[in-house]
């Protein structure tokens, strides 16, 4: 059975990879100016040369720079938004383009250069951005060379503040902790074919939703025991409790404790954004399954597995 599950998981990963490659690359349209929300804001990594900035423009499909607002991030921004001291501006390579959307659209992230953002997924970015207080935006992420991607949210925060939004710095720092926690767990399980980062993303949404519900019902933050139970239940719901290690579970518990001590726990807007993200995650999974079925992948996988035991 273990061998069967391992093969099925690997085959599904191939299906997911094929589906991801088939999606539209460019998300934000820069060919015209959105008269309702204004120009998209592009924030370049401070370590880029002029030639690399132009290459990044090409990645974002920016043909007319008059249609976007451009700025950059440096080491001071890392400290101001993420609390990271001693950062090196020259190492900031990844860039983002941000466009405000209508209420109810949720946070949508598109990684333009998936091969060059080596650690962070689009849903991990979205989940952490919601924790920080980001709402109803479309975010494109790109890099001209391979980077881990952890600092990309710095550009998102700078873009939002450039457009008049005020961010809670306690929340941006907890959001960064969330990004690093989920990434570390994914890295720890990179060789485990039974692990799926998509299910971890769903579990993170569930944890935040349940902590908010507890606070609402009892008028105070969850106790240590309740936090542990919320994490345990979420991992069980998404079939991760027997897959990730106790050390990884402890990391999630510690994050959950930090999260519920931020203003995000009381925010109706955060709940709405989480609900939207949860729906998007479910739709992504449903879309992958439907695509696999329509292309005959499931039949091929099942027939292959059956052949192993004949």
Protein architecture, described:
This protein has 310 residues and is an alpha/beta fold. The protein folds into 2 domains: 146 residues, no CATH class; 124 residues, no CATH class. Helix content is 55%, strand content 8%. The protein contains 11 helices and 5 strands; from the N terminus they run αβαβαββαβααααααα. The protein has a 5-stranded mixed sheet. α6 packs antiparallel against α9. The longest helix has 27 residues. It is globular, with a radius of gyration of 20 Å. The protein starts with a helix and ends with a helix. The N terminus is likely disordered.
Features:
310 residues; 11 helices; 5-stranded mixed beta sheet; disordered N terminus; single chain; 2 domains; alpha/beta
Average pLDDT reading = 85
Helix content range of the residues, please? 40-55%
Q: Strand count, sense and closure of the main sheet?
A: 5 strands, mixed
The quaternary organization reads as single chain
* Poorly predicted tracts of residues: 1-26
Determine the structural class based on helices, strands and strand pairing. Answer: alpha/beta
State the end-to-end distance. Answer: 15 Å
Tell me the series of helices and strands, N- to C-terminal: HEHEHEEHEHHHHHHH
| Radius of gyration using CA atoms only | 20 Å
Strand % is 5-15%
Estimate the global geometry from the Cα principal axes.
Answer: globular
* Order of strands in the sheet with most strands: 2-1-3-5-4
As for the number of domains, it is 2
Quick overview:
The protein is α/β, with parallel strands linked by helices. Helices cover 55% and strands 8% of the residues.
């Amino acid at each position: 059975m273990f061998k069967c599950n391992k093969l099925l998981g690997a085959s599904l990963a191939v299906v997911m990879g094929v589906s991801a490659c088939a999606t539209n690359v460019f998300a934000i349209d820069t060919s015209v100016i959105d008269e309702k929300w204004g120009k998209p804001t592009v924030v370049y990594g401070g370590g880029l040369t002029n030639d690399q900035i132009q290459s990044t423009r090409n990645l974002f499909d920016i043909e007319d720079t008059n249609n976007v607002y451009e700025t950059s991030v440096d080491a001071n921004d890392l400290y101001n938004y993420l609390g990271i001291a001693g950062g090196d501006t020259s190492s900031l390579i990844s860039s983002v383009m941000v466009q405000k959307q209508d209420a109810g659209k949720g946070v949508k992230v598109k990684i333009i250069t998936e091969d060059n953002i080596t650690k962070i997924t689009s849903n991990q970015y979205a989940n952490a951005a919601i924790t920080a207080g980001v709402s109803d935006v479309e975010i494109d992420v790109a890099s001209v060379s391979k980077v881990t991607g952890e600092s990309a949210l710095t550009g998102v925060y700078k873009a939002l503040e450039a457009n008049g939004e005020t961010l809670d710095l306690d929340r941006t720092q907890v959001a960064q902790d969330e990004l690093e926690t989920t990434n570390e767990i994914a890295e720890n399980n990179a060789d485990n074919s039974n692990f799926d980062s998509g299910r971890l993303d769903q579990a993170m949404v569930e944890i935040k939703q349940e902590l908010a519900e507890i606070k609402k019902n009892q008028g105070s933050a969850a106790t240590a025991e309740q936090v542990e139970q919320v994490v345990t239940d979420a991992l069980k719901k998404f079939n991760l409790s027997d897959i990730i290690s106790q050390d990884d579970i402890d990391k999630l518990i510690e994050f959950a404790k930090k999260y519920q001590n931020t203003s995000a726990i009381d925010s109706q807007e955060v709940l709405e954004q989480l609900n939207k993200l949860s729906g998007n995650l479910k739709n992504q999974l449903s879309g992958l399954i439907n695509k696999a079925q329509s292309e005959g992948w499931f039949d091929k996988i099942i027939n292959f597995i059956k052949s192993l035991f004949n």
